[in-house]
Design brief:
Its cofactor is (6R)-5,10-methylene-5,6,7,8-tetrahydrofolate; FAD. Helix content is about 45%, strand content about 10%. The strands form 2 sheets. A 5-stranded parallel β-sheet has the order 3-2-1-4-5, sandwiched between helices. It has a two-stranded antiparallel ribbon with strand order 6-7. α1 links the parallel β1 and β2. The longest helix is centred in the N-terminal third of the chain and has 19 residues. It starts with a strand and ends with a helix. The protein binds flavin-adenine dinucleotide. Flavin-adenine dinucleotide (FAD) binds next to α8, α10, α13 and α15.
Length: about 450
């Protein structure tokens, strides 16, 4: 049997600046790249035309092509990861397995089971930080506890970045191309020099989407490139859903088709507000890792006392974008059509569902999880708990978004609304399903009762 080191791709679908892959290649031993289409995830998806599966498949084909051009290949399996690993251990003399950290509770369980299997086989299992800048307990309060409020976390995050500055020769984002200082934590991993350590092997097959029971969704995917101009202007454009003022990189961050270090380098140079959004991403990953109960329950226990109304008819109207509140409806229709919703509108629609309709945030979270191209458990959960008021760093519950004033502020000329709700302003547009003033008072009373009890 041939001896190999396996690099296991998961949410890091790129060859460049990939922490675990770099470490594997650096050993100098032949590295065989692997990807597993995980049936424990795929079988649970409600739609066979899931755009995320199509995207992963497309990126796996790209990686396969890139690896074949380097004289290697990508081994692609479709199955339960633990079973696949048992097969691989029978087929190869696997010396070591390298991969990158995944912080979702189910992924941590999967990795623990694989680690155990590998250890029984005397195979090394090495894992690295790749999808965030700072993870786990790298940024903590002075007493070593994790932060639970974003602003002090973000300050400590930035201070840590500054802790280790290194000289860089050429930085295309620095003014006049001058040499500059860069944080050690944002340095790219220089794989290219090691690419000849890939395992040289014959071509391998990739199962087709149809083989796995899926079909294309027909939704276009956002570009992985973002202009310097957009990032430079981000703080001025990001709040207006009618303009393309945000990066649309969420999907690429989710599957690691771009490097977070590269984008954070750019953000640190070009726009502090954009960097802040990347810090939110680290923050929610860190929260989920340290407080995994958030996946099922409120971060603040008391909020599990809320008596949600959970009216199914109202939930269906919200999902379909037929609430009679134009900014809410525009957002939901944008989501249903494109798999994307602007952040401002995510906040408004989530607040409307939880506060105006008093529907459990987990219902909304699950609907977004099904539809968003950039769906990510940690950020989606963080966003929903923020809107419901049950999360870390939540706005006080008595601050309830008014959908009408949000519309006046962020889509004054109704450009966004008219794009997604063409019948707005005609007799075909439904009346509001709930009166704002009544809903606000009902929400305040319900929350107060729950918190008094809790
Ligand atoms: C209810 C709700 C649900 C959300 N669900 C998700 C989700 O499933 N996946 C997801 O990536 N983001 C989620 N967000 C955060 C945010 O809305 C999206 O990241 C953003 O809209 C994606 O668009 P963009 O790529 O153009 O972002 P940009 O505004 O260009 O921001 C750049 C990147 O920063 C990160 N980011 C920005 N804002 C946040 C934030 N508030 N929290 C965490 N990361 C952030 C994302 O990776 C994003 O791609 C949610 C927010 C809310 C209020």
């Amino acid at each position: 049997m041939e001896q190999v080191t396996i690099f296991w791709f998961r949410r890091d679908l790129r060859l460049e600046d990939n922490a675990g892959l770099y470490r594997a290649l650096k050993t100098g031993r032949p590295v065989l790249p692997l990807f597993i289409f995980d049936t424990t995830i795929l079988d649970k998806l409600p739609s066979r035309a899931d755009a995320r599966v199509e995207f992963i498949h497309q990126e796996i084909e790209r990686l396969h092509g890139e690896l074949e051009a380097l004289g290697s290949t990508l081994l692609v399996r479709h199955g339960n990861p633990l079973e696949v690993w048992k097969e691989l251990l029978r087929e190869w003399d696997v010396q070591a397995v390298y991969t990158n950290h995944d912080y979702e509770p189910s992924a941590k369980d999967r990795d623990a089971a694989v680690a155990e299997l590998l250890s029984e086989n005397d195979t090394e299992f090495r894992t690295y930080k790749d999808q965030v800048i700072f993870e786990k307990l790298e940024v903590t309060k002075a007493d070593g506890d994790p932060y639970v409020v974003f602003t002090p976390y973000s300050r400590a995050w930035k201070a840590k970045l500054e802790e280790k500055l290194v000289e860089v020769e050429e930085d295309p984002d620095a003014k006049n191309g001058q040499s500059d200082k860069l944080s050690f934590y944002l340095k790219p991993y220089p794989n290219e020099r090691y690419f000849d350590h890939f395992h040289q092997t014959g071509s391998t097959e990739i199962p087709s989407l149809a083989d796995m029971g899926f079909e294309p969704a027909g939704i276009p995917f956002p570009d992985r490139e973002v202009s310097r101009e957009l990032i430079r202007n981000y703080d001025r454009t990001r709040d207006y859903p009618a303009i393309e003022g945000t990066s649309r990189l969420g999907l690429h961050f989710r599957f690691g088709t771009i490097s977070i270090r590269e984008k954070a380098r750019r953000a640190a140079k070009l726009n502090g507000t954009f960097l802040n959004e990347l810090i939110w991403r680290d923050f929610y990953a860190m929260i989920m890792d340290n407080f995994p109960h958030v996946v099922e329950r409120s971060f603040r226990e008391k909020y599990d006392q809320i008596e949600w109304r959970n009216n199914e008819q109202e939930f269906r109207a919200w999902c379909a974008g037929e609430t009679g509140y134009p900014i809410v409806d525009a957002g939901m229709r944008e989501l249903n059509t494109t798999g994307y919703m602007h952040n401002r509108v995510r906040m408004v629609t989530a607040s409307f569902l939880t506060k105006h309709l008093l529907i459990d945030w987990r219902w909304g979270e699950a609907y977004f999880a099904e539809k968003l191209l950039d769906y990510e458990l940690a950020s989606n959960n963080g966003g929903w708990q923020w809107a419901a008021g049950s999360g870390t760093d939540a706005a006080p519950y008595f601050r309830i978004f008014n959908p009408e004033s949000q519309l006046k502020k962020f889509d004054k000329e109704l450009r966004y609304v008219k794009e997604w709700v063409p019948e707005y302003g005609t007799k075909d547009y439904p009346a509001p399903i709930v009166d704002h003033k009544m809903a606000r008072e009902r929400c305040l009373a319900t929350y107060k009762a729950a918190l008094d009890r809790g």
